[in-house]
Amino acid sequence: MVEHLVFLTGHLAKTRLESVLAGLENRDFTYDIVDIGVKVAALMTEEIIKRRLKCPAAVDRVILPGRFRGDIERLTAEFGVCFVRGPDEIADLPVFLGRKGREVDLSRHDLRIFAEIVDASALPTDLLLERARALAEAGADVIDLGCLPDTPFGHLQEAVRRLKAEGLTVSVDSADLAELEAAAEAGADFLLSLTEHTLDLATRYNVTPVLIPAIPGDLDSLGRAIEMAREAGIEFIVDPVLDPIHFGFAASLGRFIEARRRWPDVPMLMGTGNLTELTDADSSGVTAVLLGLCSELSIGNVLVVNVSPHTARTVEEHDRARRIMYAAKGDGALPKGYDPGLLQVHDRKPFPSTTNDIEALASTVRDANFRIMTAADGVHVFNVRGHRTGQDTFSFFPDLDVATDGAHAFYLGAELTKAEIAWKLGKRYVQDEPLAWGVAVPEKTDDRTRLAEAGHTLRAKKEGK
Fold first, then answer.
1. What is the pTM of this model?
2. Does pLDDT of 420 surpass 70?
3. Where would I find the Pterin-binding domain in this sequence (predicted)?
4. SS3 state at 22
5. Contact status, residue 65 vs residue 96, Cβ threshold 8 Å
6. In Å, what is the CA distance from 2 to each residue of 28, 33, 314?
7. Torsion over CA of 356, 30, 44 and 94, rounded to 10 degrees?
C-alpha cells in the first residue's frame, strides 16, 4: 500500500517545498502540502497546529519542519497520526525521504577507545583523575596511563587504584617492566605493550596484555607471542603497530592486513596517534579513514592520543567515527549521509537554496526585517526595501540604514560575518543559528520541544537598553 504523507509548512517555504517534492524521481508515496498559516514554517507551534490542521482521512505520517519546536508525541496522540520532524532544510528532504524518514541510529558501535594520558607520571593524582573523567565523558572506554622514559612514576599504583575506584577501566603503557608489574599488582585491566619475551608478566596477574612484535615489523615474532598467550589460556590483544607517514606507514598498513589474514579471529588494536598527531591535517578526516580501515578489518580497539593542540577533540572524533562506521557497515553502505559530525570545515551541501530560490523568496517579503542567506554566488541580505548580494559583507553596511540602531547594527554585523565565513568555507549558514562545526566543538543541546528564547540584542531592545 502506498504511504500518504502530509507536509506542514508556512507561506514563505511553500513554493520551494512544492518544487522539491515535485522533482522527486521514483517517488513511492503520495502527499499533500498544508500551509499552516504562518509566514515562517519554524514559527508554527503545537497550538497553531491543533487549531488549524485538518488532516486528510487517509494519512500515514505528518512531516513537520526540522526546526519546529513542540512536543511531537503530544501531536501524535492528539491526531492519532504519526508526526515526525523532518530535516532542517527543504533541500535535504530527498535524503530524508530516501530513508523513509528513519532516524540514523548512532547509539551502537563495536570499537573500544583507549585514551592515553601521555604525561600521567608527571601529574598529581587529583589532576589525573580530572583528566580521566573528561576523557571518559568524551567517549573513552579505557583510560591509558602513559609512563615517560626516565621519569619516576611513584604514585602509579595509587593512580590505578583511584581510577578503578571511580569505576574506570585502566591500562598502563610503559617500556619499563617494573612499572608494568606495579600496575598489574594495583589492578590495571590492560598492559601495553608486551612481547614474546615479556608475556610471562601477564600470566602472573589477571590482566590483559596488548602484544606487539619483539622486533619492529616482525609478524612472526607477534605470532609466537599469540601462541604463547593461547597456551597460557589468557586473553590478549595484538597490535602490529601503525607507523607515521614516511617512516613505514604504507608497510605498516600491510602488516595490519596480513595480521588479519593470518589470525582472522584475534582481537586487534590500532594506535592512531602516529597519524593524527604527526600529520598537519585536521584530525577528523585522518580519523575517519583509519576507523574505516578498522571497520573493514574488524579491529575492535584503538589507542588515541592528544598531545598536539590540533587533536584536542580526537576522542570525540573517534567516538563519532566508530558509530558512523558501525552503522554504515551494518547497512552495507558507504559512510556518507549518516552524520555530519566529522564534516567540520566544509559541508557536503553548503547551499540548500539556489540564487533563484532566494530571489523568489525575497520577492515575497513585505516587511523590514532583514533575511540573510547564502548561495553559490555569495551572501544575500534582503527585506522589503531591497535585495543585496555580495562576497564582502562589509560592503553592505552603507545600504542597511542601521547606523543609528546600535543593537540592530551589532546583530547584522555578527550575522553577516558568520555568513561570509560560512560562504568562504563552503559551510551551511542558517540565520540566528550557530555554524555547525561537527564534533570539533562541544555540541549545543537544543530542546526542540520549546520555542527559542529571544537573543541578546532583541532582549536589550525590548528592555530599552
1. 0.84
2. yes
3. 94-359
4. helix
5. no
6. 7, 17, 45
7. -50
Band (19; pLDDT cuts 50, 70, 90): confident
The full set of domain ranges for the chain reads 3-98, 112-331, 355-460
What is 112-331's CATH number? Answer: 3.20.20.20
15-28 burial, b if ≥16 CB within 10 A, otherwise e?
ebbeebbeeeeeee
E strands, 148-238, are: 169-173, 190-194, 208-211, 237-238
The whole-angstrom separation of Cα 217 and Cα 296 is 21
**Nearest Cα to Cα of residue 212 among 167, 242, 188:** 242
Q: Please choose, from the candidates 226, 231, 204, the residue with its C-alpha nearest in 3D space to the C-alpha of residue 213.
A: 226
Q: Provide the percentage of residues in the chain whose pLDDT is more than 90.
A: 76
What's the CA gap between 425 and 419, in Å, rounded? 10
Residue 131: closest CA among 159, 156, 110: 159
Grid coordinates in use for 325? 562506521
Residue 185: other Cβ atoms inside 10 A:
14
Q: Cα torsion at 183, 186, 190, 194 (round to 10°)?
A: 40
The residue type found at 109 is: H
Whether the pLDDT of residue 464 is over 90: the answer is no
Q: What is the pLDDT of residue 461?
A: 52
Alpha helices in 338-405 (DSSP H): 355-362, 397-400
Q: Tell me the CATH number of domain 3-98, given options 3.30.70, 2.40.280, 3.30.40, 3.40.50.
A: 3.40.50
- Decide whether 3-98 matches 112-331 in CATH topology: no
Residue-wise pLDDT for 276-318, tens only, equals: 999 999 999 999 999 999 999 999 999 999 999 999 999 999 9
- Among 387-396, 406-415, 437-446, the range scoring the smallest mean pLDDT is 437-446
In sequence order, what are the residues at sequence separation of 6 or more whose Cβ sits closer than 8 angstroms to the Cβ of residue 372?
A: 379, 380, 381, 412, 415, 416, 419, 429, 431
Question: Is beta strand 190-194 parallel, antiparallel or unpaired with respect to 3-9?
Answer: unpaired
Q: How far apart are CA 43 and CA 277, in angstroms?
A: 45
Q: Is 170 helix (H, G, I), strand (E, B) or coil?
A: strand
More confident residue, 117 or 11: 117
CA 180 to CA 196: how far, in whole Å?
15
